[in-house]
Amino acid sequence: METRAVGGLPEIEAGDDLAELVAAGTDLGDGDVLCVASTVVSKAEGRKADLSSFPPSERAEAIAGRLEAATGEHKDPRFAQAILEESEELLTEAPFVLSVTRFGHVTVNAGIDRSNVPGADLLLLPSDPTASAEGLSAALGVPVVVTDTSGRPFRYGQRGVAIGWAGMPAARDWRGESDRDGRELDVTVQAVVDELAASANLVTGEGGGGTPAAVISGWSFGDHAGDDDLFRRAEDDIVREALRRWEWESER
After folding, report:
1. pLDDT tens profile 137-190
2. What does R_g of the chain's alpha carbons equal in angstroms?
3. 87-116 residue pLDDT tens
4. Which conformational region is residue 63 in: left (phi greater than 0), alpha (psi within -120 to 50 degrees), or beta?
5. Distance, CA of 133 to chain centre
6. Angle, vertex CA 112, rays to CA 26 and CA 196, nearest 5
7. What does DSSP say about strands 87-92 and 171-173: parallel, antiparallel, or unpaired?
């Protein structure tokens, strides 16, 4: 398996043909998977925004006040309003905002970025990352994973995760297969799009590297069943339920 960054991509602007730019920067072959950072997908789709576009509601003012009290740092209520407008639900409002995006991803601040956004204050996540991946996959003829970076409970640091994908299932479903001792596996579902996203992030990097896409070659899904459940449903998520109870208790 080989993971290589796509070089030579320019600063992406609204309306740019991202598939054409990627194709010009690398050769794609059978079995390749393209991982592309959500930042450039968002830029191509015109998802830059200014804080002035988000006049704060009373709820946004209250969230900013709670964050400021919890952290001791000034928090712009317009940023809180942007989070509200990009979220289906807020799971926590302090000491940080953990939100459920409108396409089901759970992340801090609705995944809104404030770095590497020339000419604007904010960069919002793609409205529908899977639809974005489908368009790129159709144009390029290879599976595509749209990636972002995210922390996870119980660990420091961030790693690449998938927020949209096309041309392949999200997961290898090992249920019904056997281990080396012949025991049947009954719970193992491997989130391969997350693992590919993390591999890509090792070569695309963070900050100012300017390499927001990577090609993975020599990897095979294998002879396994596929599964497309990646974002855990609310009714199955005991962590989400615990957060709701914690918020309710802290408001009493």
Report:
1. 999 999 999 999 998 888 899 999 999 999 999 998 888 888 889 988 888 888
2. 19
3. 999 998 888 999 999 999 999 999 999 988
4. alpha
5. 12
6. 40
7. unpaired
Query: Are 1-45+128-233 and 48-125 equal in CATH topology?
Result: no
Asked if 59 and 32 touch (Cβ cutoff 8 Å), the reply is no
| Contact in structure between 185 and 174 (CB atoms under 8 Å) | yes
Task: Determine the Cα–Cα distance for residues 247 and 252; give it in Å rounded to an integer.
Answer: 9
> What percent of the residues of the chain are helix, what percent strand, and what percent coil, each to the nearest 5?
35, 25, 45
Residue extents of the structural domains in the chain: 1-45+128-233, 48-125
CA atoms within 13 A on the CB side of 173: 11
The model carries a pTM of 0.91
The CATH architecture one would assign to domain 48-125 is: Alpha-Beta Complex (3.90)
Domain 1-45+128-233 is of which CATH architecture?
A: 2-Layer Sandwich (3.30)
Half-sphere exposure of 78 (CA within 13 A, CB side): 9
